[in-house]
Amino acid sequence: MRVKGGLAAKKRHKKFLSLAKGFRAGRRTLYRSAREGVERGLSFAYRDRKVRKREMRSLWIIRLGAAAKTLGLSYSRLINLLKKSKVEIDRRALSDLATLEPENFATLVKTIQANPA
């Protein structure tokens, strides 16, 4: 007698069909289409978790560049002054400071310009 694997197959199908919830048409109801869509979606999700980090860093740099321009500096000059002054604030914190508290950011920039070590 051959083994058909009915219970395992049903469990596997159910897993993919539940992950395909929210998909449209046959991609939600047909196992093969659902599996293809789910696998594709999971691979994009994995890749884009890495991409999101790059995009966020780029956004912080753009914001810092714009904030520095208003104070008469370029982004690279600002980072150079920060490094010379031994100020160890990451780009995310600096970006938040520049967007949420521009007067404090301006004070910080003026301070590091006055004494760049």
Mean pLDDT: 91
Report the CATH architecture: Orthogonal Bundle
Structural class: mainly alpha
Question: Residue ranges: pLDDT <50 for 5 or more in a row?
Answer: none
> What is the tally of beta strands?
0
The dominant shape is: rod-shaped
Count of helices?
Answer: 6
Note the main sheet. none
- Strand fraction equals under 5%
**Mind telling me the CATH superfamily name?**
Ribosomal protein L20, C-terminal domain
What does this protein look like?
The protein is 78% helix and 0% strand. It has 117 residues and is mainly alpha-helical.
Question: Top keywords for this entry?
Answer:
single chain, 117 residues, mainly alpha, c-terminal domain of poly(a) binding protein, 6 helices, 78% helix, 0% strand
Question: Helices and strands in order, then pairings?
Answer:
Blueprint: H1 6-19, H2 26-29, H3 31-70, H4 75-84, H5 91-100, H6 102-114
Helix pairs in contact: 1-3, 3-5, 5-6
